[in-house]
Amino acid sequence: MKEKIIAIITAAGSGKRLANKIKKQFIKIAEKPIIIHTLEKFIKANMFDKILITINKEDRKFAENIFSEFKIPKSNFLIVNGGKTRQESVFNALKLCPSYSKIVVIHDGVRPFVKIEEIKKIVDIAIEKDAVTLGIPAKNTIKKVAQNKVLFTLERKKLWEIFTPQAFKYELIYDAHKNAIEKKIFANDDAELVEILGETVFVLQGSPENIKITNPFDLMFAETISKDLR
């Protein structure tokens, strides 16, 4: 039986930091909702056997209408009920992956500027290396601070900002999430769950345009990026 490559796109967030009546994944940029921009990248990559999108139950009908409005064929994706946290949402999707899945690519639905070639490259690396994430070297000085006091300065040349997509062998990421549930671990991202298992996560340098739209400034920056890419 042919092993499958699966994509999980997380779009079940509440978007509270954006303070907008419309949740951030559904806000339009360049006349399309952010989630549509993101989904279209994964469809155009033309390498996924299944694309799972995590959506809150309360937003499911709204999301279905948006996918229909922008003529995204139902055969191209499957909506999965989101959980209370992103981590829970991802595991809900992992449980729906076929048991013969080979690679799972996990991506934030509000990172619409990921490049198709980055998606393809990260899958190729995961096939060889088991676990990989996109990222860029940190350009600012980073200090550890407590109670508004600098404790020490971190060595910048060893620091990276970590993005998505992140790609893993299916068995590895599934086991990492199961371990987190059993031990009540909450991580910053899926790669950290794999690190906790003692496994190596490789890093692929990506584009700085691959921003996560979280706050009003990000939204303004996204509008600028979208104009440059037209």
Task: Detail the topology: elements first, then pairings.
Blueprint: E1 4-10, E2 28-29, E3 32-33, H1 34-45, E4 50-55, H2 60-69, E5 78-81, H3 86-94, E6 101-108, H4 116-129, E7 131-137, E8 143-146, E9 149-153, E10 160-169, H5 170-183, H6 190-196, E11 202-205, H7 216-229
Parallel strand pairs: 1-4, 1-6, 4-5, 7-11
Antiparallel strand pairs: 2-3, 6-10, 7-10, 8-9
How would you concisely characterize the structure shown here?
By secondary structure, the chain is of the alpha/beta class. Helices cover 35% and strands 26% of the residues.
Report the biggest beta sheet as strand number plus sense, adding barrel if it closes.
Answer: 7 strands, mixed
* Rg from alpha-carbon coordinates: 18 Å
At CATH's second level, what is the architecture? Alpha-Beta Complex
Shape: globular
Q: How far apart are the first and last residues' alpha carbons, in Å?
A: 41 Å
Q: Can you count the beta strands? A: 11
**How are the strands of the biggest sheet laid out side by side?**
5-4-1-6-10-7-11
- On the 0 to 100 scale, the average pLDDT is 94
Count of folded domains: 1
* Low-confidence region ranges: none
The structure class reads: alpha/beta
SSE series: EEEHEHEHEHEEEEHHEH
Strand content: 25-35%
Helix content: 25-40%
Count of helix runs:
7
CATH 4th-level superfamily: Spore Coat Polysaccharide Biosynthesis Protein SpsA, Chain A
